[in-house]
Specification:
By secondary structure, the protein is mainly α. The chain is about 65% helix and about 5% strand. The chain has 41 helices and 8 strands.
């Protein structure tokens, strides 16, 4: 296998190591290191299962072998008319169906454990491949081909010249916003074990003798503990506990990884002068968060919670900066004779002495004749007092702290100690510039209807309830603005200034927010600075967005913010609700059209636009490779700034491993820069115009087909029956309810995340592709579709993502889920459209089966499928039994809880097996 750039998602290496199952001619051998990791993990897991219960191991192997055989039959096309004695899927179904509830739970946990180990093996292999490729890069190469950021900037230099390329680099910003949608269904206790297994697996290959034996012993310990740990948490996390997701990523990767990303680019940019000159790489990574501040439909996120989460983030990052400052300071042991302090540094020391002789005396005692060190140690102490809120000694802003760091840096550089100036001290400056005293920029979000109701309540009853008691939600809305103001006062404006309005319908929605912000405070000087961001997410809103924006910029508060920020403005586009509202094809094209129209509108008003993309991990929610998504955007829509939501399993997958985090950050930053290259802009513009007629036909036909499905009588209850929707709502994987709770009685009220997640669990993935097949059939021109796939980045990315989603579907298992609903009409619509979409997608990409020419990813999904199949069968059988027995009132509450626990275990395992589910 030579295509190492594609993500590999391998499953059971026994297929290649022991010959279990039937390989097709298109399959390749797994790389040796990956095969070895998979064999080791499977061997340990089987031993652990055997130690726990020999019968469990026997059942695990039996179901595994039947599933492998069934998958081979399926991919070979043998399932059209299977021989009853050779139908592996039927045998797997019979075996699982005969199990008692307790044994089925253990089997589901065994397969879920297996998928965690498969994912770790994949991750370890990807890391090793990146290291190998890095080792092969020659020092004299014009670019580092592994570091995509260097390749992108080199292309900008070639196309635009140094001055214009540098101007774009200085504007570069990557702004992921972490959100509380942990759809990977993985509890924190499990994540900790996974991280330790990952470390042991990474060490294993390079060890020998006693060290290797000890490593394997510890792997046994961790894998045994992983299997014995329930994959389902005992309760849903609170929003304050959800914030630990960010703290975990911050501690394990981001805080130390971000300076490495900057240095890697700067080392290439400056060459031999790196470490001797002022770095030119800007601190372009600016993380945001909705955790603890997104209250749209989540009553658990209150004003009190937002304050607690903000304090948690702030104390944590300042503590990390304190430790880093103390470490850097202790190593600045240059004495005054070899590295004399500048006048500026001496002035800073005098200022510190005036502030606290106790602190300076302590630092001077430790650092005699080492003024750089002494100054840094006092700075570290001041950070500690910042957490303690000591008004006399604390830093009142991160900018003040950065200014002091730069004084030390300039002094070292002037004294000739440039490597000390631009080494670890530069890392610390970058960390402070990136994370500030807030760690992440909290963004508040609420539904437009909530604001309108709060204002109606205030107008009817008076701001202070003079004419009757205000509703609790109205008090909460006002308290939210007070919390935002308190966070700003404590941590600075950057910490919390964005307020997003879900379901923005008109400019009045924006006026409402500014009015409520004013009403929440008695004194005008206490009113916080906010930037209100409209979120357009439904089809009608996307089509009308420019008209609404035209009215929004007339609002006095908006005009004041534009003047204060140099005409900067953010607009958010929702991929999730637009897809559920109109179908994936129409949503993709509507979003692309909306972006183009918003860009033209912004140019007309001389507005410096940032588009905020509300994407998920799943294809049905705008998911897929982020770098390809960036490069497919319309001209002018990125403008060297890319902002998107990161959630679910995506956060852990992209930022959980330091090496892969660097790769992801460099890749997205590269695409964000490269999107402004003239050649890329030209391609996107010309291809959009060339295929306008094709997209119009696809849009109309797919939308009609999608609405036909949704408008079929009783579709909503049928959907909840043929998928584990109800059970997903019970899964303790997030504080947010599955419904918004504004009173809707249908799919309108259902959040898109359980909509997409549930279809994925049922192995149908309908949210990613439904309607495309009918649209292509209506258009009919295969040659044009193939040309568009070859020439137009937007269309090729869209089709590739759908092909990947189709590869994870399974018609045999889908039929089992659809049979739960007992509606032949709806089942036929789904299965017919699946066949039609598969036919056209394969024709467009010129494949005979999904992912035929994406060898690594295709083989990986095919190898993994049998084990997902086993869990899916377990899930659908449990759903059938549970609903049948509940209807007949045959189950006690404890028995019902047992079935639900089994289903939730399979949900967790299938999510780990399929990936891209959030």
């Amino acid at each position: 296998m030579t295509d190492t750039d594609q993500q590999i998602t391998p499953a059971d290496a026994t297929i290649v190591s022991t010959g279990t199952g039937t390989k097709g001619p298109e399959e390749r051998e797994l790389p040796e290191s990956l095969s070895n990791d998979m064999s080791l993990c499977l061997r340990i897991l089987r031993d652990v299962l055997g130690e726990y219960d020999p019968q469990l191991l026997a059942t695990f192997d039996t179901v595994r072998n039947y599933a492998v055989k069934a998958s081979a039959e399926h991919f070979a096309g043998a399932t059209a008319d299977p021989h009853p004695d050779e139908d592996g899927l039927a045998k797997a179904v019979a075996t699982i169906d005969a199990m008692n509830l307790h044994d089925a739970q253990l089997l589901a946990r065994a397969f879920a454990t297996y998928f965690h180990l498969a994912n770790l093996s994949e991750e370890n292999y990807r890391v090793s491949v990146l290291h190998q490729r890095e080792n092969q890069v020659e020092d004299d190469e014009a670019v580092d081909p592994v570091n995509e950021l260097t390749t992108a900037y080199h292309q900008l230099l070639t196309e635009m010249g140094p001055a214009k390329a540098k101007a774009l680099l200085e504007k570069l910003e990557f702004h992921p916003v972490f959100t509380a949608h942990p759809t990977e269904a993985r509890r924190k206790a499990v994540e900790g074990k996974i991280r330790r297994i990952a470390e042991l697996l990474e060490e294993n290959e390079r060890l020998g003798g006693s060290d290797k034996k000890e490593n394997v012993r510890r792997l046994y310990n961790e894998i045994d503990a992983l299997f014995r740990t329930s994959p389902i948490a005992l309760k849903k996390p609170t929003p304050v506990e959800e914030a630990d997701t960010i703290l975990d990523i911050f501690d394990n990767t981001l805080f130390t990884t971000i300076p490495k990303v900057y240095h890697r680019f700067n080392d290439w940019l400056l060459g031999d002068k790196a470490g001797l000159e002022q770095p030119q790489c800007p601190a372009f990574f600016h993380p945001g968060s909705w955790i603890g501040s997104d209250r749209d439909g989540n009553p658990n996120v209150t004003a009190k919670v937002s304050r607690q989460v903000a304090r948690k983030f702030s104390d944590h990052v300042i503590s990390a900066l304190e430790e880093a400052t103390r470490t850097v300071g202790r190593n600045l042991t240059m004495e005054s004779e070899t590295t004399p302090a500048s006048a500026e540094l001496k002035s800073l020391w005098s200022h510190q002495k005036e502030m606290s002789e106790r602190l300076t005396d302590k630092a001077a005692l430790i650092s005699t004749k080492e003024l750089h060190r002494a100054v840094m140690l006092v700075m570290a102490d001041r950070l500690r007092y910042t957490i303690e809120r000591d008004a006399d000694l604390m830093y009142h802003s991160c900018d003040d702290f950065i200014a002091d760091l730069q004084v030390v840096q300039r002094s070292l550089a002037e004294a000739g100690a440039k490597r000390s100036a631009y080494g670890p001290l530069q890392d610390l400056i970058w960390q402070a510039q990136t994370f500030g005293f807030h760690m992440v920029e909290m963004e508040f979000r609420q539904h437009s209807v909530v604001h309108a109701r709060a204002l109606e309540d205030i107008r009817e009853h008076g701001l202070h309830g003079e004419r009757g008691e205000l509703q609790p939600m109205t008090h909460e809305v006002l308290d939210t603005f007070r919390a935002l103001g308190a966070i700003q006062k404590r941590n600075g404006i950057k910490a919390a200034r964005r307020y997003i309005i879900s379901f923005t319908k008109s400019a009045q929605n924006v006026r409402d927010v500014y009015e409520l912000n004013r009403l929440a405070f008695s004194h005008p000087e206490d009113v916080p600075v906010i930037d209100v961001i409209p979120l357009f997410e439904q089809l009608e809103d996307l089509q009308n967005c420019v008209n609404v924006l035209e009215e929004i910029v007339k609002i006095p508060e908006v005009q004041a913010r534009l003047k204060a920020t140099g005409n900067k403005m953010e607009v958010m586009l929702g991929y999730s609700d637009s897809s559920k509202d109109a179908g994936p094809t129409t949503a993709t094209l509507a979003l692309h059209s909306a972006e183009s129209r918003i860009v033209a509108w912004a140019a007309k008003h001389d507005i410096d636009l940032t588009l905020f993309h509300g994407r998920g991990g799943a294809v049905g929610r705008g998911g897929g490779p982020a770098n390809r998504a960036v490069l497919a955007q319309p001209k002018g829509s990125v403008n060297c700034r890319f902002k998107l939501t990161e959630q679910g399993e995506v956060i852990f997958a992209r930022y959980g491993n330091p090496v892969l985090a660097i790769r992801h950050l460099e890749s997205v930053a590269a695409a964000t820069l490269l999107q402004s290259a003239p050649s890329v802009e030209k391609t996107n513009t010309e291809m959009t115009e060339k295929y306008a007629h094709m997209t119009e036909v696809l849009d109309n036909a797919s939308h009609e087909r999608f609405l036909d499905l949704l408008n079929t009588p009783d579709f909503a209850p049928w959907f909840s029956i043929v998928t584990p929707l109800t059970e997903v709502g019970l899964l303790p994987i997030g504080s947010r309810p599955a419904k918004r709770g504004l009173g809707a009685k249908s799919l309108d009220d259902l959040r898109t995340i359980p909509w997409v997640f549930s279809w994925a669990q049922a192995r149908i993935n309908l949210a990613a592709w439904y309607g495309l097949g009918s649209a292509c059939e209506k258009f009919g021109d295969l040659d044009t579709l193939r040309e568009a796939y070859e020439e137009w980045p937007l269309f090729s990315t869209f089709i590739d993502n759908i092909e990947m989603s189709l590869a994870k579907t399974d018609e045999r298992i889908a039929k089992m889920y659809l049979a739960l609903g007992d509606d032949e009409n709806l089942s036929k619509k789904v299965l017919d459209e699946m066949k039609l979409t598969t036919k056209w997608v394969l024709k467009i990409v010129n494949d005979e089966w999904p992912l035929q020419h994406r060898h690594v990813l295709g083989q990986a999904i095919r190898i993994r499928s049998p084990y997902v199949d086993a869990l899916s069968v377990t899930q659908v059988l449990a759903l059938r039994s549970l609903r049948k027995k509940v209807d007949k009132e045959e189950l006690s509450k404890s028995q019902q809880a047992g079935f639900i626990y089994l289903i939730l275990c399979t949900v967790s395992g299938v999510a780990a097996g399929l990936q891209n589910t959030g």
